[in-house]
Amino acid sequence: MTLHHPIARLGDLTRDEVADAAAHSVLVLPIGAVEQHGPHLPLRTDTLLAETVATAAVEACSGTVPAVLAPVMPYGNSEHHLFAGAASLRPATLAAVLGDLVRSLHTTGFQRFFLVNGHGGNDETVRLVSKSIVTELPVAVGTVNYWQAGSSAEPVPDGADVPGHAGWWETSLVLAVRPELVRTENAPSEPLGARGLYSYEPVPGLNVQMRGEWARSGGTTDPAAAADPGAGRRMLNERTAGVAEALTRFHELTREQQTR
Amino acid sequence: MTLHHPIARLGDLTRDEVADAAAHSVLVLPIGAVEQHGPHLPLRTDTLLAETVATAAVEACSGTVPAVLAPVMPYGNSEHHLFAGAASLRPATLAAVLGDLVRSLHTTGFQRFFLVNGHGGNDETVRLVSKSIVTELPVAVGTVNYWQAGSSAEPVPDGADVPGHAGWWETSLVLAVRPELVRTENAPSEPLGARGLYSYEPVPGLNVQMRGEWARSGGTTDPAAAADPGAGRRMLNERTAGVAEALTRFHELTREQQTR
Amino acid sequence: MTLHHPIARLGDLTRDEVADAAAHSVLVLPIGAVEQHGPHLPLRTDTLLAETVATAAVEACSGTVPAVLAPVMPYGNSEHHLFAGAASLRPATLAAVLGDLVRSLHTTGFQRFFLVNGHGGNDETVRLVSKSIVTELPVAVGTVNYWQAGSSAEPVPDGADVPGHAGWWETSLVLAVRPELVRTENAPSEPLGARGLYSYEPVPGLNVQMRGEWARSGGTTDPAAAADPGAGRRMLNERTAGVAEALTRFHELTREQQTR
Amino acid sequence: MTLHHPIARLGDLTRDEVADAAAHSVLVLPIGAVEQHGPHLPLRTDTLLAETVATAAVEACSGTVPAVLAPVMPYGNSEHHLFAGAASLRPATLAAVLGDLVRSLHTTGFQRFFLVNGHGGNDETVRLVSKSIVTELPVAVGTVNYWQAGSSAEPVPDGADVPGHAGWWETSLVLAVRPELVRTENAPSEPLGARGLYSYEPVPGLNVQMRGEWARSGGTTDPAAAADPGAGRRMLNERTAGVAEALTRFHELTREQQTR
Amino acid sequence: MTLHHPIARLGDLTRDEVADAAAHSVLVLPIGAVEQHGPHLPLRTDTLLAETVATAAVEACSGTVPAVLAPVMPYGNSEHHLFAGAASLRPATLAAVLGDLVRSLHTTGFQRFFLVNGHGGNDETVRLVSKSIVTELPVAVGTVNYWQAGSSAEPVPDGADVPGHAGWWETSLVLAVRPELVRTENAPSEPLGARGLYSYEPVPGLNVQMRGEWARSGGTTDPAAAADPGAGRRMLNERTAGVAEALTRFHELTREQQTR
Amino acid sequence: MTLHHPIARLGDLTRDEVADAAAHSVLVLPIGAVEQHGPHLPLRTDTLLAETVATAAVEACSGTVPAVLAPVMPYGNSEHHLFAGAASLRPATLAAVLGDLVRSLHTTGFQRFFLVNGHGGNDETVRLVSKSIVTELPVAVGTVNYWQAGSSAEPVPDGADVPGHAGWWETSLVLAVRPELVRTENAPSEPLGARGLYSYEPVPGLNVQMRGEWARSGGTTDPAAAADPGAGRRMLNERTAGVAEALTRFHELTREQQTR
């Protein structure tokens, strides 16, 4: 395969290049969301960060992992953010999208898929599709929420909720990659509402969802005024390293065992 | 509400008793699975344990949490166990079941639901339904995988994978509650196959699903021969205490905030 | 197959025992409902009776019919009872559940299925699934509403509607098997409302469904105060004999003809 | 309402005539099937007979029941006849069609629906839709399988299975209404195969479906050579009278009770 | 194949005649709609015209194209006409109907399908199904909106919108084939409302749909008072000739290339 | 609304900016596809061109039409291209995506939507969704296939099929915007196969779909070797002008009439 670019992008390849690459390559698919991120962050925050990390991780592995990067799926499941604005797919729709993409790309020749998710609301669907599709097709699917990959040495300020939503952490990351998209003057210095039940385990193992919690919490988990581009850059690098390590490990684990 | 039994069971109540209880009670629904559990455990292991823990937790809270225990949903998503036998619902079917139950019980008057899950294959669906249903109905939904509730002081032997599948942990638990259902003579003393990629995070944040892994691993995660009913009893008590604590906390958190 | 129990229960078997039994056994699945049964009967009346009859019928045939009894599906289609309380699956959901169970158990090795239904609201769905699934899979499916099996010599009091809903008949049956679940003091001695159009054919061949009829009729078809545990026991025995005869005949009819 | 025709046909009315008629009229919908009917009957036998009986019944009631006759739905669920030829809707598709028709006609103003079914394969779906739709909309739905309406004095010859499929009964009826469509020279004088398990209750209350039974039985239930147009005419009159009586009774029962 | 009729009608054939004809014949399926057509035309206008043109086209080709004419599907997607009355299938239901019919008739032996559509609201669904089904099955599907077939020399009066909806064109056609169904005294001589955005491309390539436009336009596109049966007859002949030409061409194009 | 960018991009706005803009703005959504485009064009050709034209059109109207540009939906319905490679959504999935996006953005406050489609395989679905959604929600939806907007003065060389697929036209356009993505050395100078039945109307009004036609035609409609960036630039400008005119006209037509 002769690629015209340092990393292979599915959208930029021709059909013959794809045919050459598919059987031995890992198809990397970033998945984002378009939804309210407080008064200061852009709606596409999750899409931006998923795509940024996935792209950087593919680049970081370019010498060792044959990967093909698919266009980011910009829309995810954000029904819970409709109180304040989102372009949202219902979970069944998102599941159909991911299933169809894997199915058609498998027909195209790919056998290994690596999904980089950028949004908590997509988490269950991404994992469910990965479990289901392998009962239907002879494929391997790796999934990672970029914010959970790797480990971090960056100190977390008091009151910050990592990763949280539209708080110190995400704001720092967007400041690092697209500072002009952050309305720093609007970044909250205080919590916008009560702590959302959706955002933590009140006791170990317990998750609570309740109607209206996102609105009650003001749609952010923690103040963002202290966000810092330097910390953002370092944390982004840490997560990118984690995703790159995950991609590498996925490649190694599935290269031999992969069946047809 | 005058109940005929120490704990209120939805199936045993009359319609008027339900009408009296619904608005202020938490509806507790255990969810299991019927699937292969190695050569020594019965297919309904997950259903048995989910029901056992949920019932004991409701009892433990009977003085403090007004709860109504629904009949265990005995079937779950076990598509990945069909290589060796299961009665399985596809994820979309299980999601429809859970959604319909919450929806109809909400029409009946309940506003708060607490789902006690007994099977890893149900995890994403249970959580997805809990997130989705609160965007549709004015309800609160707590979810807990019983094996993740609370904490444990019980020492774990070398080679055991907790909770795992059909290994030391689950076998000990079934030995504690229904020893006659365990074919101890068949309990494996060695791993039945390679370690399944489904059973661990190869690096932090990475989940891997691959066609055929359950078969390659022999369908169990770790040897069961060292399983012990005493340890099982203690661990079951720990988990029950954890679920009871989660139920209590859920009740406290949603009692006031619950909206109509 | 060496079973640990007098009747083989799917949930109690190991995967190897299931593998041994599946090809030549009939899988028996009881199906119930959780719904209002007047002011005196418990919500799980239909589940209780379907499970009781199915279990007794399997026992009665244990020497002649190789059967494996699956866990009762406790929830059915009770949308029409939501006026007064139910945990209900919509018809499409129930159809998906039954289809998935047959499909996965067929993958597991079973070729013959016998569905014992305990609830009128499930009737069409149960029969529809049985007709459909044989156009998809090489299986045989027998279905029986337990109240229609066999014949009865028990005299029916004036005003009783057999089987009816929550009236003399069902109340007698529950009194026979779980008397402590009947609030006899609440058992109506008069009709609770107008005769429901849903409950009879006004002229031969005509069925009428009308919005609100279940509420107008008070949710029961006939008075229950005269219910009698002795009659209940005898009628239950008659129905059990009928279901056992049906199971035996199903086994004989499908044993030879069954194709793969 | 001034109609241009002796009976009101939905398809022939204008929107204003429909608007005038809808609130107080019964919408009558015949439902058929296009499927193999042995070597001698046309594929549209069920559609023809459903439409014939429904039309005659509406005419018979024209002085007493305000009815509007909708175009016959010519296609039904015939998946079990695909071994020898059919134009078939899957059950879920047929259910969607019937639900959509009732829903849209209710928006148009109708509140009462009377479904005249001509095909056994549609029976469960027709009844299921009638039960479901009244939990969704304030409507009344009457359903009748035309062959079960009324009573019959016509003697049945030995070996005939009434109504059966493509046997003495249906052949007599088609001979009565469209004799030129019957290939009498091909009408079987002997059974074409084994008696189909689908065609009878082996013991009371038992229904059996088995893969391949329709093919094994040759696709007809009983010989047709003795079919007789005179008997067909008399039996058709009997069924028409039964359907007319059902329609009249439905009108009386739902006229007053109908709610909005 | 010996047919009893000059043109082969699927509904009139026996299973053996269908079996003989299927492999080499084109299955012709007309599709209509039942919906408001102004104050003067009957609801089944589209069904009537699609069936009339399809039948005449099959007759016109009877010497050259082996065709089998299926019963018209009388109901289509008319959700946009519910403001004034329709019996409508939602698009997904109509797609399921068409897909099921092609699928079952392909199982029956047909490989080539020709859909004659009579209603604008069905257009996208008909074409979508034709595109989709060939990715699933080895079939060829031709589709034609009868009003777009062939060319016309008939002069169009000022203010007429061809084909429009319930205006000069459709009224002329119904006058030609079933004049007794037209309430000529009600035929509008002036537009009934504003020009509907749905009815034209405001600029090349732009289609606009807006809530309420059909009501605002009065449900017709142009006045019908000048409708003329002679013009209707000529235009119907032109369209029939166009559909016959399309059927002939479809037969020629797919006869050789058709694969199994 | 104070925007940070010359054109308002949904993804770049904050929730408050969206809230300010939604009610009076047109939401512009480009829709593409990722599929084989011959041996010389990249898979994302349609996504690239839809996004390019939509963006340029929004810019061109920036003084007159308040528009908000959503992230391009990169994946479309390409099932017919799977013979040679695609990342494809099935039509029902694509319809769900578009319906969900309009629905959630309507909840967010938008009332007017303008869909710019870049792929023929999406055409029916885009139009169907636009027709359906206005029967559900009080919105206006404009749709345009960018290649059909406006008019063109550019001469078309012999043998070119405009717009075609991966031929002279599309290749010229990609050469104009992203020349480095075109493998000009692979651009076919001769047709790669027989003319595809999918690509033209054999007679007026006839569309033909046949299994395997895309493969037989080699997946392109016409030679691309003569493609020219200058012509591409001019044609792109013409189409952009057409889409801008369509957007302007849509804004004018729906501004006043828009209902809530």
TrEMBL record, chains A, B, C, D, E, F:
Required cofactor(s): Zn(2+)
GO MF, one example: hydrolase activity, acting on carbon-nitrogen (but not peptide) bonds, in linear amides
Keyword Membrane: no
Entry keyword Zinc: yes
Entry keywords, A to Z: Hydrolase, Metal-binding, Zinc
Cited InterPro entries: Creatininase-like_sf, Creatininase/forma_Hydrolase
GO biological process, one term: riboflavin biosynthetic process
Family recorded in the similarity comment: Belongs to the creatininase superfamily.
Protein name: Creatininase family protein
